[in-house]
Amino acid sequence: MFPNMLKKIVLSVVILLSLQYKSQLYSVDELDSINNLYWDRGEVAAFVKFNLEMQKKYKDANNIDGVVNTSIGLGGAFTHLNRQKEALEYLDKAKENIGNVTNPLLISRLYNQYGELYTLSDLYKESNKSLDKAIEYAKKINDKKKKDKRLSIANLWKWYNFNQMGMIDSAYAIQRRSLQNFPDNPLVYEKIASEYISTKKHLDSAEYYLNKALPLVSGTTAFYNKGLVNATFGDLFVAKGEGDKALPYYFQSLDIFKKTKNKFVEKEIYNRISKAYQTKNLNDSTKAEYYYKKYSYLNDSISMNEKKVLGAIVEKLVQEKEDEQEHKTILYTVISAIVVLSLILLFFIRKAYLKNQQKKDRIIREKALKIEEKEQEADELKRKVNDSFEEVMQLVKTNDPFFLTRFKEVYPEFYQKLINHQPNLTEHDIKFCAYIRLNLNSKEIAQYDNIAIRSVESKKYRLKKKLELSTETDLTKWILEL
Fold first, then answer.
1. How far is CA 438 from CA 212, 384, 388, 395, 425, in A?
2. What are phi and psi of 61, to 5 degrees?
3. What kind and span of H or E run contains 4?
């Protein structure tokens, strides 16, 4: 116990000394150590002030990891203060920069904080989506201790969400995994015990799990965990109606949270002590009322003080935004002046351009007239081709012996390409190719040539072979594209 306490004292001194050098930019781990010290003391307002100051320094240094880290921390602080709007703004600010971050620890923490915020807003499904992302990135963390911490936190929140959604099987699955994967996390055992206590059933099981958690917080400097386990022990005895046994645990827990100056948990302990004095074996209404008043007073005091302190911080933030807006106004004025000058210049450039364009338009119109004349000629040619097509089709339908002669006249290029490809084609072969070139189907060919459809297919097969086409080549497509 003593070596651990000594380490904690040394760490605290080092951190406090380092805070004097305000120009220093801390790494992710260093900033987390300082922030943890603020949380241990319950100094949320100081935490917010420090992270706002550090965020400005990180921005000036273009340190993206630092900006993201402080934004996540501020999002967490405002979440715990039930100031969800501000929390969301800072988390969104972190998310805007997350694309430039490669540290999976920061990304996991961001989505974990989103998950916590959504849970406290009763958006359990959205919370689980974010927590799943937190778990995904946590698995990429190389440091096993840090990885397990992120995974255990995300799973504890998912566990709570599933319980709230009535998905007991899913909650139980996480409970089972947490017991297997995070046996050194006392909050896993504390949460299981709390669930038993809330139902006031199987209190012996609750006591069993609390006894498993107790050695994990004995002698530790993790004050929050130790205080929480002690408080839950108190809840156990209150559930049993043994308020006298609950009080020592509550007072131990109270002492811890007083030392850490965590007023938020401290007030909850006062409320629980009040309930302990209301149990049958104590039934002390005077002390119950006394501690309830301490709870109420502290609750009101916290609300008032935090509003004052954090209100000033928010005012500072607003002032910074106003200053930034003033700079933007100056910038917009300069930009506007540039735009006006650009428009004047553009006017003269456009005037010269239009003059030149008129000349080009005249040339284009002349060319367009020539193109139109050519198009008219092409249309006339197309009309003649269409007339010729109708003429050829009529010869096919009447089985006219001059059909092939006229076809060669109308489609000379096709005929020439065909015999160049295979000079040994018979007149009958060419006639069959002509049918296909006119886009006649097998049924029409059979009708006009007075043969069976099967014979048409056989002819196609023989013709394809004679033309030396591969088996993969489609005869009709080949002829139409020739």
1. 90, 16, 12, 12, 18
2. -90, 0
3. helix 2-18
Signed CA dihedral, 161, 163, 167, 173: sign only: positive
Cα–Cα distance for residue pair 336/332, rounded to 1 Å: 6
CA dist 265 and 259 (Å) reads: 12
User: Which is nearest to 437 in space by CA: 403, 414, 409, 463?
Assistant: 414
Average pLDDT, the chain: 83
- DSSP tag of 401: T
pLDDT-based confidence at residue 312 (cuts at 50, 70, 90):
very low
Handedness of CA 428, 430, 431, 436 (dihedral sign): positive
Distance (Å, rounded) from C-alpha 396 to C-alpha 449?
Answer: 9
Residue 313 has pLDDT above 90, yes or no: no
Report which residue type is found at 450: N
**Does residue 142 surpass a pLDDT of 50?**
yes
- For domain 398-481, the CATH superfamily is Response regulator (3.40.50.2300)
- The answer to whether 55 touches 74, Cβ cutoff 8 Å, is yes
Rounded Cα distance between 303 and 81, Å, is: 9
| 104 touches 142 (CB < 8 A) | no
- Domain edges within the chain: 297-387, 398-481
